[in-house]
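Before going further, learn to read the protein records used in this course. A complete example follows; check for yourself that the lines match position by position.
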Amino acid sequence: MPVRKAEAVWEGGLRAGKGVMKPESQAFQGPYSFPSRFEEGEGTNPEELIAAAHAGCFSMALAAALEREGFPPRRVSTEARVHLEMVEGRATITRIELLTEAEVPGISPEKFQEIAQAAKEGCPVSRALAGVKEISLEARLL
């Protein structure tokens, strides 16, 4: 299995500084700053990239699990919401919400929920983020 890499360069102090994050693939290069991370400023931030990674990983894990169970999906769409809050004076990722919708012919809502929950538990990014106090899942069958 490959080792994936990304890099970040930060210049300056915390509030006035700025940086750039880019994955090894160079699929994008994202500027980030104090305002883009802790306020509503322009640019990306680590939590947004964690959300993208989690949404992508979970969508693939759910598609694979559905297919393994004999229900190949037409489509799986996931939004991940990463909550960054101050806890005891430190910025902390406290919660991640996965909101997914899937088009899956021939599956019952109960079986879909069972497979979705198992996919959440088995997703490599979910497992990597197990230190987050809460990772919730809202899965809708279309």
The beta strands are 6-11, 18-23, 30-33, 75-87, 90-103, 134-141. The CA atoms of residues 41 and 84 lie 15 Å apart.
